[in-house]
Write a structure and sequence with these properties.
The protein is an alpha+beta fold and 189 residues long. 50% of the residues lie in helices and 24% in strands. The chain is built from 5 helices and 5 strands; from the N terminus they run αααββαββαβ. It has helices at residues 5-29, 35-47, 49-71, 98-110, 143-162; strands at residues 83-89, 92-97, 115-125, 128-137, 166-176. The chain has a 3-stranded mixed beta sheet, covered by helices on one side. A two-stranded antiparallel ribbon has the order 1-2. The protein is elongated and about 95 Å long. The protein starts with a helix and ends in a 13-residue tail after the last strand.
Length: 189
């Protein structure tokens, strides 16, 4: 459980209050604080309504701090997994990070001469991973054929080298550019 700075400050205040109350109780038990002193201190809260108001305020603040710390450190959002299971055996599991799969997919895309730029994203889905690919391709490229080929080869490449099941490969062609991502300038006559 990781506490935020504010929660750590509240925890320190609550612990200081608990230490003070413990010392007072220990002093009363060992008779270091006399009965008349304890009764006189408690009687202060019954003599004036302002003292009772202060005591009630302190009680509410301590209660709010305790309730806040009771729920501190609990995450409301689920953390995204950062690794995919390669293989589970009797002695344990083998995992690969999603960033490693991402770099493999980018490397595979960059080997294709028709692709100028490539951006990939990998996320874990039930039973495997899903890969998203955004590409910039050279002009006069058969986009349908390239996308089909890229989807099949990425799936085979990742599955053969990692053992992770690729559930989906989505390809988005962002532009058809000339040389390294520079858009073709319109012809001026």
């Amino acid at each position: 459980m990781k506490l935020k700075l504010f929660d750590r400050i509240l925890l320190a205040i609550l612990l200081i209050a608990a230490i003070v109350v413990s010392l007072i109780l220990l002093g009363m038990a060992t008779r270091l604080i006399s009965e008349s002193a304890a009764v006189g201190f408690v009687a202060l809260f019954y003599h004036a309504w302002q003292n009772s108001l202060i005591l009630a305020g302190v009680g509410i603040v301590v209660l709010l701090i305790a309730v806040r710390l009771l729920f501190a450190g609990r995450s409301t959002s689920l953390q995204q997994p950062t690794a995919a299971l390669i293989r589970q055996s009797e002695t344990g599991g083998s995992y690969i990070t999603l960033s490693a799969i991402d770099s493999m997919a980018q490397k595979h895309c960059r080997t294709n001469k028709r692709i100028c730029e490539c951006y990939t994203s990998v996320r874990q889905v039930e039973g495997g991973v899903s890969i998203g690919v955004r590409i910039h391709v050279l002009p006069d490229t058969d986009v349908v054929e390239l996308c089909d080929s890229l989807q099949n080869t990425i799936k085979q490449y990742i599955e053969s080298y990692t053992g992770v099941t690729v559930k989906e490969v989505g390809v988005l062609v962002e532009s058809m550019t000339a040389q390294g991502g520079n858009a073709i300038a319109p012809r001026v006559e």
